[in-house]
Amino acid sequence: MNTDLILKYFPELTDTQISQFSEMAGLYQDWNQKINVVSRKDVDELYLRHILHSLGIAKVLSFLPGSKVLDVGTGGGFPGIPLAVLFPDTQFTLVDSIGKKIRVVKEVIDGLGLRNVEAIHARVEDLPGSFDFIVSRAVAAMPTFVRWVDGKVSQKSVHPLKNGILYLKGGDLREELQDFSKAHIYPLSEYFEEDFFATKVVVHLPLGPTAGS
Ligand SMILES: C[S@@+](CC[C@H](N)C(=O)[O-])C[C@H]1O[C@@H](n2cnc3c(N)ncnc32)[C@H](O)[C@@H]1O
């Protein structure tokens, strides 16, 4: 079954979640032929490179019911859509500056019947609202990213981790994170055994009322 890899690490999925993860394969195959949002090679490895990778954030933190999460530069919906399936009681906002990507994301949301996700075509700098956590993958280096999301993190922390950014990154981050002494790195190889995750991490950066605090 195409969801075996997901069940290997998230064995407590409900039947609804299993069928939603399962349906992603067909939805992305269809939509990717019309509008390219995921590279060809990656569609073949959707469950490893996109879905399970996105769910790496869930190994670091379980979002609580009623919390709000923003996915910046979601592209084809990663990491936001897999996380929205896993946390159906958390409200997800997915934003991207390219309209055709948001069109695909909306089709996938409708196809999966997700009620806890909205997809917005905008630059994140122009987006109003505040969120418990901001998630992202492959969008901008941390200094730029922190500037973009300045003021968008709510200050009342109710999770075991302080509100802020949870960013999927890879490679040597020493230079990129040198000005962020509060950043904490969680290697995904501690949770997932596949080679793909050998160099992948989740960076947690707590954010105060302004990015500098
Ligand atoms: C390399 S893609 C990554 C897509 C997705 N996060 C993933 O990992 O598959 C980067 C995405 O960020 C979006 N993006 C770049 N700058 C942005 C901004 N300021 N506001 C919103 N989206 C932005 C781009 O349009 C693009 O879809």
From TrEMBL:
Its main location: cytoplasm. It is an enzyme of class 2 (transferase). InterPro entries: rRNA_ssu_MeTfrase_G, SAM-dependent_MTases_sf. It comes from Muriicola marianensis. GO terms for molecular function: methyltransferase activity. Its EC number is 2.1.1.-. Belongs to the methyltransferase superfamily. RNA methyltransferase RsmG family. It is found in: Cytoplasm. This is Ribosomal RNA small subunit methyltransferase G. It holds the Pfam family GidB. Keywords: Cytoplasm, Methyltransferase, rRNA processing, S-adenosyl-L-methionine, Transferase. CDD domains: AdoMet_MTases. Specifically methylates the N7 position of a guanine in 16S rRNA.
